[in-house]
Amino acid sequence: MSDKKDKDLPDTDELQKMLQDMFGKLGGGAAVPFPGFSESDGDTDEGEGDDTPMEIDRADAIFDFNYKPRDIKSYLDRFVIRQDEAKKALSIAVCDHYNHAKFMRGLEQEHGKIPDGIEYQKQNVIVVGPTGVGKTYLIKHIAEMIGVPFVKADATKFSETGYVGGDVDDLVRELVQKADGDVDLAEYGIVYIDEIDKLAGSGGTMGRDVSGRGVQTTLLKLMEETEVAARNPNDMKGQMMAMMDFQNGKEGGKDTINTRHILFIVSGAFSGLEKVIKRRLRSGQIGFGAEVVDPNDAELFNEASTQDYIDFGFEAEFIGRLPVRVVCDKLEAKDFVNIMKNSEGSLLRQYEREFAAYGIQAKFEDSAIKRIAERAETENTGARALMTVCESMLRDFKFELPGTAVSELSIDADLIDKHDEILAKYRELGQRVDVAKAREEADLYCRQFQEKHNIKISLTDEAVSLLGLEAASQGRSVLQISQQRFKDLQFGLKLIQKNTGQGEFELNEEAVEDADKFLSDRVVQSYTDAAEAKQAAKSQENESSSSEPFIE
């Protein structure tokens, strides 16, 4: 009975195939590697013996952290223009956070556990500023510099655990993915949540707010310290893999991820917060002699208190977990000029590369940079406006100039202010024939034709000029026009070659204007020439025979 039961069970290979098919349907058809199963079951890889040097724990590398706030700010200056106060505050918060993590890691390794009585409030950060001022760029480059995994998400995609929508715990699990499965390293990563202001609940909300206050409550424990399951309990694929690990007696690594040393940074534009601050400031001014306080909105954000954030719609416990508050300034025209000229990620370099791909050297003059900056400022979308302005300004040039005779493009104020007029000039310039370039491409076509068909051809200067004009008007190359125009040329030339023995052929203006007629006329002429040559040879033979002396 037992033997029959065992025979009915699938073997290891069959079980692996069944599960892979199932997971393929669940996860888009990708093959799933199963711990405990391998093609060489029971074999160990070479180099896994005791003599093999142990791989350095990447998490331990975090504790070589020896940056100073000034070092981090200097690094950020390469990528983000302005925002000096924000850079200082972030640099200090990051250094304090990872220096503490280094200290705690040392104590844990020395004593086997973290000693009691050591208190530390995490320096989670809230960044306030309008869109496009570099908030994400700052955080991303900090993580890049210190070498920790970095996860970014928008707050609007999350809902409270148990409801439809993203689970905030998944942010922590994603850190493990970014750390290539290294949970120890992931426990020192950075989680960045943008658009956090969208979670601010309104005072009149009735019932359960699963996408606002509910998410704030869920984030509270993550930002302080908690254990997050390494696998999502709602992820069937992950749970099945955990089961397979257990059944095969394989250690699946840490089951949970501790958030004690994960740095949380949140950001948002906080539109409307300035009204809350103004209301508070004005309420404190009573009497006829009170000074009217009405600073600019950008300055108001620096005056924001904890109560202002609570009045805006945040839970007191939530905002209390974000002790470091950073305000990014709105960018002005002079900042955009600085970004385009001095930032390592300057958009101008991108456009220069894009034109260079078409064989056009584009150069941005100072007058154009100033004009772009002025227009970008009016867009009110921060540095993102630079792409909007440049794309609108250069779209027609990028469409019409590639493939023409234009090899240089000077981008100045006139090109922006007199767009249509300058475009017309470049369009006319593009239609002019670059004789040297046209001849080079024509000769290339002739060489390719000879290699492919074993027939030698050449193009007259007049023919090349006509091809160049046509190529310029169509935005194509002389080589492309020639390949299309003379695609059946070899058939006629081989007939001519057979009829006349001609070894070389010259293509003139007539061949360019009407290749079929040119070839047809030449083929007919070759037959005529061949017949005449044959007749001439026969006549000469007859004459030769009649002129011989008669011998009796």
Nutshell version of this structure?
With 552 residues, the protein is an alpha/beta fold. It contains 26 helices and 11 strands.
Task: List its salient traits.
alpha/beta; 54% helix; five-stranded parallel β-sheet; two-stranded antiparallel sheet; 26 helices; 552 residues
Descriptive overview:
This protein has 552 residues and is an alpha/beta fold. The protein is built from 26 helices and eleven strands. The chain has helices at residues 2-8, 12-26, 58-61, 69-77, 84-111, 135-146, 169-178, 183-186, 213-224, 236-247, 273-283, 297-301, 306-312, 316-320, 333-342, 347-356, 366-379, 384-400, 413-417, 419-431, 435-453, 461-474, 478-485, 489-500, 509-513, 515-546; strands at residues 125-128, 150-154, 190-194, 227-229, 256-258, 263-268, 324-327, 361-364, 408-411, 456-459, 504-507. The strands form four sheets. Strands 2-3-6-1-7 form a five-stranded parallel beta sheet, with helices on both faces. Strands 4-5 form a two-stranded antiparallel sheet. α17 crosses α18 (384-400) and α18 (384-400) packs parallel to α20 (419-431). The model is unreliable at 26-56, 160-165, 203-210 and 287-296 (pLDDT under 50).
Main sheet properties: 5 strands, parallel
Q: Which runs of at least 5 residues are low in confidence (pLDDT < 50)?
A: 26-56, 160-165, 203-210, 287-296
Radius of gyration: 38 Å
How would you classify the helix and strand content by structural class?
A: alpha/beta
Beta-strand content bin: 5-15%
Q: What is the percent of helical residues?
A: 40-55%
Q: For the residues shown, what is the average pLDDT?
A: 79
Counted beta strands: 11
Q: Tally the helices: what do you get? A: 26
Strand order of the largest sheet: 2-3-6-1-7
Q: Rough shape?
A: elongated
What is the distance, rounded to the nearest whole angstrom, between the alpha carbons of the first and last residues? 123 Å
